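Ticket #4471: structure output looks truncated?

Reporter: J.K.
Steps to reproduce: submitted the chain below (215 residues) through the standard prediction queue, then opened the result file.
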Amino acid sequence: MTLEQILNNYKTERYKISVQAKGTDFSTWVVFPDYKEYFENYLGYYTTLPDLFTLVDHAVKGIFVYKGKEYVHPHQSIWRDRGGNDRGIKPEVSKAVIESIFENEEELNEAIDSKDFDRLYEFIKKHKVTKFGGLEIYDCALRIGRKYKIAPKNVYLHGSTLIGLRTLETKRLVEEDLSNNKTIEMKDLPEALREMNPIHVEDFLNMKRMDFMRI
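Returned output as attached by the reporter:
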């Protein structure tokens, strides 16, 4: 299997995510026609929110609405691992992050006014709390940014996205030690990925990381 074949699969197959209906502790599959429809519907929700408080609240908690139903994104949902331990972003963590952000609302507005995604990301990173990690920081910045047309120009590395890139390193498809960076520029990616949107590349490296082992 080649990287181009894996990328074609990502672009053409239906996009499925396992989400929790808000207020429940069980998950359900939500299916989109493809990855672009997923991002347009999921991130597009945040452009509809009426005020900054609601935007930040839903962005931190991962709340979004699709076809009239309210869900919690899998990155922020609470789930139980095989050891019986609760995992995910607990309500008290989300609450503390929201409070911390609004204690520094002037700085938040300055980050938004800058139209610089990295500045927005660094603001959330600066004012987050313990157990709100790199993926959650990125998600929050991405959701708030969509409201104000602020998008990343580079690919941000964290969690499974970082694992995917490291696998491409072992396959010699990207420069060695590229994964040591916080972000990577589009020009440093394989040619097949360079015409994609950076947020789609971030997702591709995550979603298809296991397939990279078959290259």
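Triage note (M.O.): checked the attachment and the full token line is present. The beta strands are 15-21, 27-32, 63-66, 69-72, 79-80, 86-87, 155-156, 183-184.
Status: closed, working as intended.
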